[in-house]
Amino acid sequence: MNTSQWMATCLAVCPAALAAAPAGAEPKYTYAGIGYGYQDIDGLGSGGAFGVDASMAGADSLHLRASAGFSETAGLDTNALAAGIGCNATVDDGVDLVACAGYARAEVAFTSTSYTYTADGYRVMATPKLELNGGIAFTSPDGENEMAFGGGLAYSFSDSLALTADASLSSDVKAAGIGIRLYLP
Length: 185
Hints:
single chain, mainly beta, globular
């Protein structure tokens, strides 16, 4: 699937998901997660990745975010750290538009780069237990502008535990993963 096909899919899924949101269910913004994924990096190869992430809701629709990822691709170790702030605007019951901005640092083998990122997207409660999400992210590593599209879901087994799945696509990286999310009070 090329970038334009991915964008068309995201744009097609978003209105359908927005229309499907049930009354009463709302996305949760305070959680900790852990996951495993697979990534394919053009020019380097493919490999597994392990990551952790956390989000903490604050006042007035703000949340803080942090993540760390570790992978080995074609024998090269890659480490990434990111921190940022997000703003979630409730559009309707169970439908939030989300905007985030932050700072990230990545190390591939012995080379490191730091960059800023912004991301815009949506979180929709398709059912009281199923959240659909997606969006677009912009980064500027090494002074080059990059764009990535992504989407995912979180299925809640209880008020505090969910299974997550996600996928993303940019001009040089394709990734997919699964994880466990623990919602915190």
